[in-house]
Amino acid sequence: MKHRVFLTRRWPESIEAKLQERYDVSLNRDDRPLSPAEFKRALQQYDAVCPTVCDSLPAEVLNVPDKRCKILGNFGVGYNHIDIAAAKQQGLIVTNTPGVLTESTADIAMTLLLMSARRGAEGDRLVRAGLWKGWCPTHMMSSDVTGATLGLIGFGRIAQAMARKAHHGFGMKIMYVKPSPAQQEVVDELRAIRCDTVETLLPLCDFVSLHCPGGNETRHLMNDERLSLMKPSAHLINTARGDVVDSQALISALRDKRIAGAGLDVYEGEPNIDPGFLALDNVSLLPHLGSATIATRTAMGQKVLDNLAAYFAGKDLPDRVI
Ligand code: DGY
Questions:
Q1: Do residues 92 and 108 share a domain?
Q2: Does residue 121 come out as left (phi exceeding 0), alpha (psi in the -120 to 50 range) or beta?
Q3: 242: Cβ below 6 Å to ligand 1?
Q4: How far is the CA of 198 from the centre of ligand 1 (A)?
Q5: What's the whole-number mean pLDDT along residues 101-130?
Q6: Residue range 211-238: average pLDDT?
Q7: D-isomer specific 2-hydroxyacid dehydrogenase NAD-binding domain: which residues (predicted)?
Q8: Which of 69, 100, 138, 279 has its Cα between 20 and 30 A from that of 258?
Q9: Cα–Cα separations (whole angstroms), residue 117 to 160, 174, 190, 283, 284
Q10: 234 belongs to a structural domain
Q11: Rounded to whole angstroms, how far apart are CA atoms 75 and 95?
Q12: Is the CB of 78 under 6 A from ligand 1?
């Protein structure tokens, strides 16, 4: 008898096919987020359920007494959408997909940094609207990226990959905040300077990029008070999780030009976006594209597959969260 596996969303075809060779796989053919009742049913009916960041899994959804499921193979590195304490209490194993989306997510952070600095999205809108009147010495002037200072809040894999692109590619100076100092070889390679607190880093940077996990501990880390510590010429980049930034505070800071711009890939309550952002020209908005390359999404699926294979073979799991 094949193990029963449920994917809450459609995955790249090559990975779905590999899973189907090994397991009795059910796909969410509509490719839409599941309701809590549908997710609970999946926990009752399948040996493994594979959620994504779109599945909000609080304790009440995970609390299914007669469940068959033993493992949640999360398709993604972040797992703040899963109540990990509740999953543990329910005896569920949780795995994730670290390492394989580092470069693609750092690429999107750099894309947003460049778009925000050089007013890329605004320029595109202007051209499409037929409003461009031709080259002019003072038209759409913007900020230099080369040689500017980049501050990273969180200095894990993705932040370090971004720092490499920024430092080696654009000669940017790198500063970071992290509870403990980064490895000496990384510090030496990037000439990275550590700040003890977010408050000391913010006034020193031309660009600030967020790379901390989401969840209660970092909710609204970038609030009104901290946004006011940024330079008026600075830009905020968020490819981490939407709730790390207080949207209302950011909208006011951008509207009042207390900071120059922002580049966002993630949002509080996504896919709903605060209409306040849509009315602003100095914010670049992407639809959570961090890991959205064919190779990365395929590698993420392969990671889930490797974890499931290890679990069903009774081996150690390569990416066990709990
Ligand atoms: C993750 O892996 O956590 C991303 O946000 C989804 O690409």
A1: no
A2: alpha
A3: no
A4: 24
A5: 98
A6: 98
A7: 110-290
A8: 138
A9: 20, 17, 22, 10, 10
A10: yes
A11: 9
A12: yes
* Under 8 Å between Cβ of 256 and 230: no
Asked whether 291 lines ligand 1 (CB < 6 A), one says yes
CB of 34 sitting under 6 A from ligand 1: no
270 and 207 fall within a common domain: yes
Distance 65 CA to ligand 1 centre (A): 29
141 is written with which tokens?
A: 């002037």
* The ligand 1 atom nearest the CA atom of 101: 2
Cβ pair 28, 72 in contact under 8 A: no
Q: How far apart are CA 73 and CA 268, in angstroms?
A: 24
Q: Could you identify the atom of ligand 1 that is nearest to the CA of residue 291? A: 7
Distances in Å between the Cα of 13 and the Cα atoms of 20, 169, 238, 295 are: 10, 34, 30, 12
Q: Cβ(209)–Cβ(109) under 8 Å?
A: yes
Could you give the CA distance from residue 40 to residue 67 in angstroms, rounded to a whole number? 8
Please indicate, yes or no, if residue 281 is contained in any of the structural domains: yes
CATH code for the domain in which residue 34 is found: 3.40.50.720
What average pLDDT does the segment 45-67 reach? Answer: 97
Instruction: Compute the distance from residue 76 Cα to the ligand 1 centre, in Å.
Output: 5
- Its ipTM equals 0.94
18 CA to middle of ligand 1, Å?
22
> Do 155 and 223 reside in the same domain of the chain?
yes
Q: What is the pLDDT of residues 160-193, one digit of tens each?
A: 999 999 999 999 999 999 999 999 999 999 999 9
Tell which one of 72, 77, 296 to mutate to probe ligand 1, the residue whose CB is within 8 A of the most ligand atoms. Answer: 77
* Other beta carbons less than 10 A from residue 129's beta carbon: 8
**Cα-based distances in Å from 218 to 160, 197, 277:** 19, 14, 21
Judge whether 282 and 262 are in contact, CB under 8 Å: yes
pLDDT of residue 49: 98
| Residues catalogued as catalytic | 241, 270, 288
**Could you read off the pLDDT of 254-290 as tens digits, one per residue?**
999 999 999 999 999 999 999 999 999 999 999 999 9
Of the pLDDT bands very low, low, confident and very high (cuts 50, 70, 90), residue 228 is: very high
